[in-house]
Amino acid sequence: MQAFPIEKFRNLQTPFYFYDIELLRKTLQVVVLEAAKYDYHIHYAVKANKNPRILSIIREMGLGADCVSGGEIETVLNEGFSAEKVVFAGVGKTDWEINLGLEKDIFCFNVESIPELVVINHLACAKNTIARVALRINPEIDSHTHHYITTGIKDNKFGINLDQLDRVLDMLSTLSSIQLVGIHFHIGSQIMDLTPFRLLCSQVNELQQKFIQRGIFLKHINFGGGLGIDYENPDENPIPSFREYFNVFRTHFFVLNNQQIHFELGRSIVGQCGNLISKVLYVKEGSVKRFVILDAGFTELIRPAFYESYHVIENLSLEEATDVYDVVGPICESSDCFAKQRVLKKTYRGDIIAIRSAGAYGEVMASQYNCRQLPKSHFSDC
Ligand code: LLP
């Protein structure tokens, strides 16, 4: 079990995010080391966590950034990331966001449709510049993850469908302010079984042939993100196996001369270092259940309500006896529930609770529903 500074927690206003900076640094060291073996480029997926302290540590380790909005581009540039390492994805880029990307001369736009290509071409032409573009292709691969976070099947809104690729390539030759620099994929998130990544490699190998036949050399291949973390055993597996993950691409993807390989990792980098710390307001005896009511709700961590996702929940007290509880928040919605029928140490008002593995898609998805305040953040090293 992770050692939390419980005395310090008692003096802080809950709920808040607590980040284990040691673990973040270790995770970054591993990912950087493993990626360097094959000269892979990592763009951190900012959507997973945009906390300034977290971003600055990630930047110090030399990672680039994967952004999905003008706001994210501004955030990372203010944080000191270099524009040369910024990629910009998303199915719905607005004109101001595209203009921002052009003005800042970001590394490339990951483009998801023909109408988007036309608009980027038009805006780049107006600025008398050339937009570097990677085509996001929907590879039609099921990543077997939660249906809300699978992105690479025909049914999803993401990417250019395979049967439209020829049309897009025909069209590209007519767009004079676009430079095609590569292709981009992202098949989903929280992927634990690496088989879909293997299938992705085979699919991209085949696709490369199509480009070769058309006389197009792709300098950059971006495989997106998606590597999962062990939500059930955060202490046994605090750092995902980046080695195995990269090895899939090294073994199954055939790199052509000088091609550069990119990844956009979010959850696997920041997921395990974050915890939501909350206080027990009440223990309520229902007629069929016992509820632990926390001062945190889905306004602080929406994943359980949104995806019914599992997070380890620990009562940090010294109590030895246990009991079974539904762990819920104070929000006026029945979905405001972190866990049902969970075994916890016997719980009392005032106990401090840690909800683990909340570093990715936690703080960043917090809302002010019910006029609540956004959670603060604290760090293990200060
Ligand atoms: N690249 C693209 C184009 C993406 O859409 C995403 C995540 C990533 C990279 C980073 O994926 P990661 O390495 O973090 O799996 N809120 C959900 C997850 C949504 C993921 C959205 N896209 C959750 O809490 O599980």
TrEMBL record:
GO terms for molecular function: diaminopimelate decarboxylase activity; pyridoxal phosphate binding. Keywords: Amino-acid biosynthesis, Decarboxylase, Lyase, Lysine biosynthesis, Pyridoxal phosphate. The keyword Transmembrane helix does not apply. Its EC number is 4.1.1.20. Its cofactor is pyridoxal 5'-phosphate. GO terms for biological process: lysine biosynthetic process via diaminopimelate. Residues 17-359 form the Orn/DAP/Arg decarboxylase 2 C-terminal domain. Pathway: Amino-acid biosynthesis; L-lysine biosynthesis via DAP pathway; L-lysine from DL-2,6-diaminopimelate: step 1/1. The active site is at 332 (proton donor). The keyword Transferase does not apply. It comes from the Bacteria. The modification N6-(pyridoxal phosphate)lysine is found at residue 47. Specifically catalyzes the decarboxylation of meso-diaminopimelate (meso-DAP) to L-lysine. This is Diaminopimelate decarboxylase. It comes from Azobacteroides pseudotrichonymphae genomovar. CFP2. The gene is lysA.
